[in-house]
Every structure is written in structure tokens, then in C-alpha cells.
Amino acid sequence: MFKNLFDLSVKRSGLNAFGFYIVYVLLGGLFCGLFCGALAVVYCTLNQTVCSANGAEVGLHIGKTFGVFCAGLFTLAFGIALLTMKKLWKSVPAVLLFLASLPASLVFGCIVSMILLAIITTFGDKIDMKDNEEPRQET
């Protein structure tokens, strides 16, 4: 279920795609959290009077504003990398799923957009990986 998580060119089974989804949602949440935290520190360093008076409200505003931006950025970068590594830019269903993941990331965040990208990992015929075997080249 968690084999070859960082090899984006692997064709995954349904169970492997689910493991891929779990790991990358957690990584996306970690990335977005660290990015938004860094932005909050920079914003509050530059605007100390606003942050000292309304600390919690400013933090929530920064989280809402930049969290959505960061989820979209993560989905965009990850989707481009996925389609490039799997060489699926000519596959209409894969490109449509990628394009659908972008507005999904802006509305629902990484939780929904990564479902669409995990489906893309089941496409392709370059490498086939079953649940209990090592990756192999298809003939």
C-alpha cells in the first residue's frame, strides 16, 4: 500500500492509490501549514501594532487567505509533476482530472484535490505495480 510513494511514474492499483492519497494529503497539509506559519510571522513582524491588538483575528485571516493560495499552489505543482513523470499530457482524462483538481483545491483544499490526483496515478502503462510485488517493466 505504501510502496514507491515518491516514484510518480508508477501505475498504482486502487489500494496503492489510497495509500498515496493519505501520505500526500498529510504532506500537503504540512507544507501548507509551514508556509502559512512563515507568512504569519513575516506579516506580524511588519505590522506589529495590528497583530498585537487583534492577534487571533489576524491569525485566522492569514490562515484563510494564504491557506487557500497554498493549497492551490501545492496542487498545481504536484499535478504538473505527476503528469510530466507519467507522460500523460496527451491523455484527455488525465488532463481533465488535473484541471478539475485546481478549482477543487481552491474551494475544498488538498483533501479533495488530492483525490483527483490520486486517480491519475492509476493511469498509464509504463510500470505496473500490484499490492504484493515489485515494480516491473511492461512488455
List descriptors.
mainly alpha; two-stranded antiparallel sheet; 71% helix; 139 residues; elongated
Describe the protein's architecture and organization:
This protein is mostly helical and 139 residues long. It has one domain. Helix content is 71%, strand content 3%. The protein is built from 5 helices and 2 strands; from the N terminus they run αααααββ. It has helices spanning 14-46, 48-53, 55-86, 92-108, 110-120; strands at residues 127-128, 136-137. The protein has a two-stranded antiparallel ribbon with strand order 1-2. The protein is elongated and about 55 Å long.
Could you give the topology of this structure?
Elements: H1 14-46, H2 48-53, H3 55-86, H4 92-108, H5 110-120, E1 127-128, E2 136-137
Antiparallel strand pairs: 1-2
